[in-house]
Amino acid sequence: TIILGIESSCDDTSAAVIKNGVLLSNVVSSQAVHEAYGGVVPELASRAHQQNIVPVVHEALKRAGVTKEQLSAVAFTRGPGLMGSLLVGVSFAKGFARSLNIPMIDVNHLQAHVLAHFIKESEEDNNQPKFPFLCLLVSGGNSQIILVKAYNNMEVLGQTIDDAAGEAIDKCSKVMGLGYPGGPIIDKLARQGNPKAFTFSKPHIPDYNYSFSGLKTSFLYSLRDWLKEDPDFIEHHKNDLAASLEATIVDILMDKLRKAAKNLKINEVAVAGGVSANNGLRNSFREHAGKYGWNIYIPKFSFTTDNAAMIAITGYYKYLDNDFCTIDKPAYSRVTI
Ligand code: ATP
Ligand code: FE
């Protein structure tokens, strides 16, 4: 079974080929045009996808050593994401599958972030989470604790009621005048800083839900006060600010995850999504493994942010379930797991 996966939900155009669960290629073309704007500009993203989609798919097939005639099915991100971006990948995938007379498989982008843990890089790669497991999904648009019961059965136990963790990091980074996206920049600066240098407010909300908008405001107001005292405050304290912000976010995320693991008595715990590239969060996972006996699953860096390998692996499991979609199914910009 050979699946072509296509991802175009935001600002990365990606295509990947998976054969019987093993990854043959994963090509990602990230769009640099948005950097100058400090955020993704939807219309520019859509146009860039149109330019990139054909060469990216071509390259993925070439690197996999697979011809289009050998494909069993085409899997694509149907949502959630930016409508103009999604439409490019969805339309291309449908047309491609139709022309080859093979099934098309619609994939939920958030489920795919979780199932990235099942991408095998070789036949011998056998370190996958066991069902049921908990997955902390932290990305640019989502912060959720998910109970994963099976490949096709996930339950959201809690989620952010306002901003996502990645969004909060990106906004705080913007306030500090750093580049976009802020996540990797904050991560790098934080390595040289003191995580206890500053304290920012933490939310008090019930259940397994998250909130990050209060932290963002607290960061902004504190910074404004400090800048009144010292106009070069950011320059002088960049590393400590980044380290303290990162530590606060990691604490907020882990507090609820620990609570869920304890209450549900589950010690298989995974992390997924773009923010799972963060070193502070990854280290905290390792500490929790030692302290609470968790079996932890941390994705390879290239499978944290958006990629088509995760779409192809999700498509592969749907293929085994004969779970196909028809050509009339539209893209959806908003949807939960
Ligand atoms: P969604 O999957 O919810 O639709 P998305 O696809 O835009 O959102 P991802 O690509 O999974 O999100 O993740 C992007 C986010 O990850 C950005 O907010 C980015 O700043 C953050 N990020 C990337 N690398 C790091 C890092 N090393 N540390 C912290 N955050 C990071
Ligand atoms: Fe994503």
TrEMBL record:
Q: Where is substrate bound in this sequence?
A: L137, V138, S139, G140, G141, D170, G183, D187, N278
Q: Which InterPro entries match?
A: ATPase_NBD, Gcp-like_dom, KAE1/TsaD, Peptidase_M22_CS, TsaD
The Gcp-like domain covers 23-312
Which leading EC class covers this enzyme? Answer: transferase
Q: What is its main location?
A: cytoplasm
Q: Where does this protein hold Fe cation?
A: H109, H113, D306
- State the Gene Ontology terms under molecular function: iron ion binding; peptidase activity; tRNA N(6)-L-threonylcarbamoyladenine synthase activity
Q: Where does the record place a coiled coil?
A: none
The reaction(s) catalysed by this protein are: L-threonylcarbamoyladenylate + adenosine(37) in tRNA = N(6)-L-threonylcarbamoyladenosine(37) in tRNA + AMP + H(+)
Q: Which Pfam families match?
A: TsaD
**EC number from the UniProt entry:** 2.3.1.234
For activity, the cofactor(s) needed are:
Fe(2+)
Note how many cofactor molecules are bound and how: Binds 1 Fe(2+) ion per subunit.
A GO biological process of this protein is: tRNA threonylcarbamoyladenosine modification
Q: Does the record bear Membrane in its keywords?
A: no
Position of the signal peptide: none
Listed A to Z, the keywords are: Acyltransferase, Cytoplasm, Hydrolase, Iron, Metal-binding, Protease, Transferase, tRNA processing
One cellular component GO annotation, for this chain's record? cytoplasm
Which subcellular locations apply to this protein?
Answer: Cytoplasm
The entry sums up its family as follows: Belongs to the KAE1 / TsaD family.
Q: Which NCBIfam families does UniProt cross-reference here?
A: gcp_kae1 (TIGR00329), T6A_TsaD_YgjD (TIGR03723)
This chain's function reads:
Required for the formation of a threonylcarbamoyl group on adenosine at position 37 (t(6)A37) in tRNAs that read codons beginning with adenine. Is involved in the transfer of the threonylcarbamoyl moiety of threonylcarbamoyl-AMP (TC-AMP) to the N6 group of A37, together with TsaE and TsaB. TsaD likely plays a direct catalytic role in this reaction.
Identification of the protein by name:
tRNA N6-adenosine threonylcarbamoyltransferase
Species in which this protein is naturally found: Phocaeicola dorei CL02T12C06
- Gene responsible for this protein: tsaD
